[in-house]
Amino acid sequence: MGDVYSGYRVIRPTVDPALHGILRAAVGHGLEGGAPWPDEPLSEDLFRHALRFAVRDRLIGVLAEAAIDGTLPLLPDQLDQLTKHHTGSQVQMLNIEQLLLRVADSFGSAGIDFRVLKGAALSHLFYADPSWRTAADLDLLIPSDRFDDAVTTAIKDLDGEQRVPEVRAGFDREFGKESMVRIGPVELDLHRTFVTGPFGLTIDLDDLFDGRTEIAIGGQRVLALSPEHQFLHACYNAALGDYPVRLGSVRDLLLCRRHLEIDLSRIIAKAEHWHGTAVVQRAAELVIEIAGRDVAGGFTELAALSVPRRQAWLLRSYLSPARSYSRPLASLAVIPGARARLRYGWAIVAPSRTYLDSRGWTKSKHFRRAVRRLLGHD
Amino acid sequence: MTERFADDVVLQRASSALSRRLLSGVLVLVPGMSESLEISVPGDLIWDLLAEPLTVADLVEALASSYGVSARTVRADIEPVLRALDEAGALSVTSALRE
To answer: DSSP secondary-structure letter at A241?
Structure first.
């Protein structure tokens, strides 16, 4: 069941065992029970593949960490290639942090609360050095009732550009996961909830701003989620964020577990409250499948959770190449109230002209594309 | 060494400076800079040492002892790096340690 369920091996049947071993070593690097790195430098071909996967899976930082601590043997040319990739990634990380400080000032003046998510937070909280984590964007969680203000502030005060507008006016504030605003070289992702689709709609969003974790960056103090919510967010991100799963997200979850003192029974209770038991269970199963049972201390209990049938059905909407369409359809099953369902359904079926134009689509092209994807013809 | 970096001057990373470790050095960015400043090995050790306040004399001595070279050589080598960091606003430069 694991193979079909996780989507990891299903999508990567051609990953050869040597490459799989390297990726596995990267995911569990520095953790007790982590898979060993090879003793000898990799062949040119294997290194090239490993680098490609590491870029895609946000593991470049781990390769750099392993190179610097001497556990990953590299030939001089391989070290040069890795140095180039890692330096590029860290230039972007500094751009992200620079933007974070500007946003903190701007949102602070506007009275908009936020929590830093993903790379900008995790690099400081869980990694041996922030330089061993890479990210592409700045991700912030915004309270639903200030969501529109945050988007407007980012556009007006920070000279941002929203290249893809919301599907219909008011959609993001009520149902959306995020709104993306480009500011200079960085994309600012303003999140209302953890994930797109049904599991993002059943999270108690008011809960998320109850606790906090302080991070000092550039002499300023910014806030991340509480430890419990950091762990749950890491589960949601690993289980549902990308398909196939992004291995860097699995490493995030492992490091999160190692550094946070959390009570698993509280995690299980909160997941139940959010109707997200299936998410936590899948995340734990992925950790065990990818990093191995030895490195996965504490995840076996979560992987053994019993998942309600309805949640297992909703989960399937995330594990498909047609997820851009299957998740919105599945969302209809969890949106309370006929009117809200109607507003949601109408927005999905008939997006605004501005939205369609930004994607270069017409109404009929949008419809045909959705049908083709859902039927598995793309 | 110029007066700006005289022996008793105390140096430290500016609190607003952002940095990342690289395989080949260190990357520094101060809010407002349009591009980050890359300091290659062995100049990155200066940045590491300046995590704490240090007089120029102590910095020179620490580097000379790390690399087994004379203080005179170190002084000549580090001045361009210190100047670049200072111009970027990445250094806090004060005339003496407060007791």
So the answer is: I
Whole domain around residue A135: which residue ranges?
17-374
| Residues of chain B with C-beta less than 8 angstroms from the C-beta of A83 | 22-24
DSSP codes joined into one string, A98-149: HHHHHHHHHHHHHT---EEEHHHHHHHHTSSSGGG---SEEEEE--GGGHHH
Cβ–Cβ < 8 Å for A173, A144:
yes
Contacts of A91 in chain B (CB under 8 A): 27, 36
pLDDT of residue A4: 37
A211-A214-A215 Cα angle (round to 5): 145
Contacts of B19 (CB under 8 A, 6+ apart): A94, B13, B26, B27, B28, B29, B47
Write the ipTM: 0.91
CATH number at residue A173: 3.30.460.40
Contact A317, A330 (CB under 8 A): yes
What residues contact residue A220 under an 8 Å CB cut-off, 6+ apart? A101, A104
Q: Which residues pair with A214 in a beta bridge?
A: A223
Q: In degrees rounded to 5, what are phi and psi of residue A253?
A: -65, -40
Nearest by CB to B27, from A94, A102, A219: name it: A94
What's the total number of domains in chain A? 1
For residues A188 and A180, the answer to whether their CB atoms sit within 8 Å is yes
For residue B24, give the nearest of A83, A93, A129 by CB distance: A83
- For residue A278, tell me if it sits in a domain: yes
Give pLDDT tens digits for A285-330: 999 999 888 776 679 999 999 999 999 999 999 998 888 888 988 8
Residue with tokens 């009732």: A145
CB A27 within 8 A of CB A251: yes
Sheet holding B37-40, edge to edge: B18-22, B25-29, B37-40
